[in-house]
Design goal:
The protein contains 20 helices and eight strands. By secondary structure, it is of the alpha/beta class. Helix 10 runs parallel beside helix 12.
């Protein structure tokens, strides 16, 4: 029966696990917990292929509890009830160790169904997720569990796993001759995902031409099978929000090179709309009144990018990113509107002053004097009158930024008002 190479090379003990030294090193906390044999409820959080399932399997071997596995993408509430029904039977005298993969796909009710049993110890839960557990997992489950973060593996760690897989692949398919750098390329392009690297390696062995009794593992072939493995990306997941956040913060921090890097990551993943949205936002949030024309220029660049599509759309977006990163900065716009929004949400929205109301709002025969002063009839096109509601008179939302453009506007109005 065929068994995927990635499954066959799966480590059988902690010493065979590559990476995760911060928790599985010689004195790592998780290693000490596993060796103690007293396994608490745990949540493993990290990217695909970083060893979460492997470590869970190793824990299962070292416990005397019956192991049950569920994948939240396919499991239902009835599956949980079936497991609960086994408790306190001769099949599970010491309780159950439940490995729940992709727990973020369980809804609140499904997660809640486990609470009683993980609290009284009849079920020991080991859950894994690729998403931030503090956003996706019910708080009551989190409070009863210890979260361990599995980090993306470094290229050298992935390479060790690849070389272990090579020896097994040669037993299966035959001895191989590999061009220099092939195996490191596979490891580097995996994005820290061992499973992807091993799957790419297995595909290379299966497709390799045989010459003089050796399978020829070529660099060009390795580049083809691994080119899309270079970056984890899910438009609804943490990687998406991390990338767009990094782009926005790099623009705000005026780091042109970093902003271009994160733009490239978004575009490489095909997320043209996400990149456009962040860039448009930055023009008003982080540059704003320091360079008001930036909003119009960036809008033109975004429109061009959307019309061109990828790959050509990268050019106007890169232009927009460089413009924003090198432009003078001001957050006076976002600070002003957020203050105003806070007052409105707090209920501070009194009646609109009579002089500002629509003059046509009064019924026929009941017209009232409005008293509105038309600013253009006064020197400097300005006249003092009340614009805010009575309960907000004196409120100040906009503060001039300390840049040339806003200070020029401030000087102008200081001379008039």
């Amino acid at each position: 029966m065929y068994r995927p190479l990635a499954d066959e090379i799966r480590p059988q003990n902690l010493d065979e696990v590559f990476g995760q030294q911060h928790i599985l090193g010689e004195n790592g906390l998780l290693r000490r917990i596993i060796k103690s044999g007293d396994i608490p409820n745990m949540i493993f959080y990290g990217p695909s292929g970083s060893g979460k399932t492997t470590v869970a399997n190793i824990i299962a071997k070292e416990t005397n509890r019956q192991l049950r596995r569920l994948n939240a993408t396919t499991a239902s509430l009835s599956d949980i009830k079936d497991i609960i029904a086994e408790l306190d039977t001769f099949l599970t005298p010491n309780g159950i160790l439940l490995y729940l993969d992709e727990i973020q796909y369980f809804n609140k009710k499904q997660q809640q169904s486990l609470l009683e049993f993980i609290e009284n110890g009849k079920i020991t839960l080991i859950a894994s997720t690729t998403e931030n557990p503090y956003f996706y997992i019910y708080n009551a489950v989190l409070s009863r569990s210890t979260v361990f973060e599995f980090k993306e593996l470094k290229t050298d760690d992935v390479l060790k796993a690849v070389m272990r897989a090579v020896s097994i692949a040669e037993e299966r398919y035959g001895k191989a001759q590999a061009e220099d750098g092939v195996y490191r390329l596979i490891a580097a392009n995996s994005g820290g995902d061992v499973r992807k690297a091993i799957n790419a390696l297995e595909l290379l062995f299966k497709a390799a031409e045989r010459k003089d009794g050796y399978l020829q593992i070529k660099m060009d072939d390795a580049g083809i099978v691994s080119q899309k493995n270079a970056m984890h990306y899910d438009k609804d997941g943490d990687q998406h929000f991390d990338a767009v956040s990094a782009l926005m913060k790099s623009l705000r921090g005026s780091d042109t090179d970093a902003a271009l890097h994160y733009l490239a990551r978004l575009l490489n993943a095909g997320d043209l709309p996400g990149a456009c949205r962040r860039i448009l936002c930055s023009a008003s949030e982080d540059i704003g009144m320091a360079y008001p024309q930036a909003a119009a220029i960036v809008k033109a660049c975004v429109d061009s990018a959307l019309q061109l599509g990828l790959p050509e759309g990268r050019l106007p977006l890169a232009q927009a990113v460089i413009l924003l990163a090198t432009a003078p900065k001001s957050n006076s716009v976002v600070m002003a509107i957020d203050k105003a929004m806070a007052d409105v949400k707090a209920g501070k929205a009194g009646p609109i002053p009579r002089e500002l109301q629509n003059v046509h709002a009064d019924g026929a025969g009941f017209e009232r004097d409005q008293g509105y002063k038309y600013p253009h009839n006064f020197p400097g096109h300005w006249v003092r009158q009340q614009y805010l509601p009575d309960n907000l008179v004196g409120a100040k939302y906009y503060e001039y930024g300390d840049n040339k453009m806003e200070q020029a506007a401030k000087k102008y109005w200081d001379g008039i008002k």
